[in-house]
Amino acid sequence: TQLAPRLGAQGVLVWLLAWRLTRSQPASTIAALVWAFHPAYPDGVAWIVGVIAPAYVVFGLSAVLLYASALEKRGRRRWLRYGGSLAAAVLALGTKESGISVVPIIVAYHLLLGQPELLRRRQVPWLLLPFLLIPVVYFPLRAALVGNLASEEATTFSI
User: Fold this and answer.
1) Within 10 A of 43 (CB to CB), how many other CB atoms are there?
2) What is the pLDDT of residue 152?
3) Helices (H), the chain
4) How far, CA to CA in Å, does 155 sit from each of 131, 144, 151, 152, 158?
5) Which span out of 69-73, 82-86, 123-127 was modeled with the highest average pLDDT?
6) What distance in Å separates the CA atoms of residue 85 and residue 130, rounded to the nearest whole number?
7) What does the pLDDT read at residue 118?
8) What sign has the CA pseudo-torsion 62, 68, 71, 77?
C-alpha cells in the first residue's frame, strides 16, 4: 500500500523528533500516527516508484535529529553526529530540491531550542556556517546550470 513506506523509517523519525521537542510519549505517538496515516502525500509516495518523497523526508528528519543530538554531545560523538547531519542535509537536497528547507529548520532549531542564549548575546553560531554554505553554493550552481539550459536558442526542425 501507499502508507507502507511512511510507517517505517519516516514514522520512527517523526516520533523521535516529536519526543525530542515534547518529551511526551503520547504526544510523540500521536504525531507519528498522524504522519503515517494522514493522506497528504499519497502522490508523493507513489511518485517514481515511491522512493523520492520518503527518501527526502528520511534525510531531512535525520539531518535535524542528528544536529539536535550533536548540540547535546561533546567530543568525537558530537562531530560524528554533526557530520552525519550535514551529509543528510546535502542528501535531502540531492533527493528533492525542496530539501533546501532543511537548512532554515536547522538554523531555527539551533537558535530557538538548541542555544537561544546566542540570540541575546548576538553571537554567531559557527556550527551553522557549513549549513548556511549549502544554499550559497547550491543556488549559483543551479542558476548557472539551468540558466545555460534556458539561454540555449530554440531549435527548429524543418523538413
Assistant:
1) 10
2) 54
3) 4-5, 11-22, 25-37, 42-46, 52-72, 75-95, 102-108, 117-121, 129-151
4) 40, 21, 12, 9, 10
5) 82-86
6) 11
7) 74
8) negative
Residue 46 has pLDDT above 80, yes or no: no
Residue position matching grid coordinates 516520533:
15
**Per-residue b or e along 96-116, where b marks 16 or more CB atoms closer than 10 Å to that residue's CB:** beebbebbebbbebbeeebee
Cα distances from 76 to residues 27, 69, 127, 128, in angstroms, run 32, 13, 15, 18
Distance CA 5, CA 56 (A): 12
3-state secondary structure 77-94: HHHHHHHHHHHHHHHHHH
CB 71 within 8 A of CB 107: no
**pTM, entire model:** 0.69
What would the mean pLDDT of 62-85 be, rounded to a whole number? Answer: 93
Q: State the residue for C-alpha cell 503515517.
A: 36
Residue the block writes with cell 547535546:
72
